[in-house]
């Protein structure tokens, strides 16, 4: 049976108990809590070994469990969302796709075809025309312009329809690894990858990097999906996630699983030893957003299987299995800590709350550390 919490094994629970005992850290913020319960188990074994070693690296492990709100800021960047309530162009890195010629869609699940007040124009504007005011704002910096070739390939591959709902309009060509993340400076980008390196082994990090840091960066069909506006918006808010299941050996089909995710609020600390709640039977988002298959009118529930196909895996490659796996891990972490819904003000409040913590919950002392224990060697 499919599980949204396959990582929550008995071994992991025992390792976390040992980690809690050796560091004397009993309560952690929700972001670190989610990372610990979803991270690579070999990395977790390494944390426990260092925590139990009695060496200076033991204190570094304890400090890393108290990393603070900047972890949530990195997750917000991953979701490609703004950090201010006044910013409303949350999907500015995505432009609407024009409908493709109707074709037989691949088996999938979908959404009720309700009209949207922000439905994009059905035709592409010429270069001399101004964009329609109903369109999502485009990036105007020439250095950030999207690759039309990659978008066209992804749209043709997905038959111009949302791969989840089979809705034909309005649809967007959406990034798995956010376009905005690909434009970050070296230092900002390194901080994000250093965070991931604290919870996944070097070989996994390299697999993820290899699939995104090529000559075309984020602008390649392997990093793009056709999604309806509502599915894309819910995905960007960590209300749903896609679990990669299997890629065919010949690259002509990719099986993914759809999951609704629970909601939570950032504030507050949770017991490290108690696993987060990831219900496997959700039928809607936390605020009751629901989706339907536009071909069958069947509702879409957690655990639904979706099969993406391509007639030419070379010219029209399917989405990257590795990038979808990265998305699967980080979107669940973001949902479990409420990263999508926090503002800068919320994070500042969280910073102030950290200053008031009692030493009984953290006996190692010292200033708040980076989530990366510098004294710990990276996991191979």
Automatic annotation (TrEMBL):
- The residue ranges of the HNH nuclease domain are 162-243
Q: Which positions, given as ranges, span the membrane?
A: none
Instruction: Give the originating organism.
Output: Aspergillus eucalypticola (strain CBS 122712 / IBT 29274)
Where does this protein have compositionally biased stretches of type Low complexity?
A: 96-109
What lineage does UniProt assign to this protein's organism? Eukaryota, Fungi, Dikarya, Ascomycota, Pezizomycotina
Region Disordered: start and end of each range? 78-152, 345-380
What superkingdom heads the lineage? Eukaryota
Q: What is this protein called?
A: HNH nuclease domain-containing protein
Compositional bias of type Acidic residues: which residue ranges?
A: 345-362
């Amino acid at each position: 049976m499919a599980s949204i919490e396959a990582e929550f094994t008995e071994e992991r629970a025992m390792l976390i108990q040992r980690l809690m005992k050796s560091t004397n850290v009993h309560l952690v913020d929700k972001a670190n809590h989610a990372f610990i319960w979803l991270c690579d188990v070999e990395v977790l074994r390494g944390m426990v070994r260092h925590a139990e070693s009695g060496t200076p690296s033991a204190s570094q492990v304890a400090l890393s469990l108290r990393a603070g709100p900047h972890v949530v800021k990195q997750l917000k960047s991953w979701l490609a969302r703004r950090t201010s309530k006044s910013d409303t162009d949350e999907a500015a890195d995505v432009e609407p796709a024009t409908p493709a010629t109707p074709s037989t869609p691949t088996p999938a699940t979908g959404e009720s075809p309700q009209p949207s007040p922000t439905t994009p124009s059905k035709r592409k504007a010429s270069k001399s025309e101004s964009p329609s005011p109903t369109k999502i704002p485009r990036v105007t910096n020439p250095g950030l312009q999207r690759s039309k070739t990659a978008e066209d390939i992804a749209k043709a591959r997905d038959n111009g329809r949302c791969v989840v709902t089979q809705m034909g309009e309005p649809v967007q060509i959406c990034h798995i690894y956010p376009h905005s993340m690909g434009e970050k400076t070296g230092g900002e980008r390194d901080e994000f990858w250093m965070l991931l390196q604290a919870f996944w082994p070097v070989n996994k990090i390299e697999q993820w990097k290899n699939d995104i840091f090529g000559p075309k960066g984020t602008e390649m069909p392997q990093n793009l999906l056709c999604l309806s506006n509502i599915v894309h918006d819910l995905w960007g808010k960590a209300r749903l996630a896609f679990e990669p299941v299997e890629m065919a050996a010949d690259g002509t089909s990719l099986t993914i699983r759809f999951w609704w995710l629970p909601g939570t609020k950032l504030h507050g600390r949770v017991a490290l030893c108690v696993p987060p709640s990831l219900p496997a039977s959700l039928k809607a988002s936390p605020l009751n957003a629901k989706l339907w298959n536009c071909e069958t009118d069947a509702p879409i529930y957690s655990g639904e299987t979706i099969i993406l196909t391509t007639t030419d895996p070379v010219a029209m490659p399917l989405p990257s299995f590795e990038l979808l796996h990265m998305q699967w891990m980080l979107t669940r972490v973001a949902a479990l800590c409420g990263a999508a819904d926090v503002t800068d003000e919320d994070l500042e409040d969280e910073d102030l709350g950290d200053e008031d913590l009692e030493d009984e919950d953290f006996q190692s002392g010292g200033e708040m550390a980076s989530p990366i224990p510098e004294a710990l060697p990276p996991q191979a």
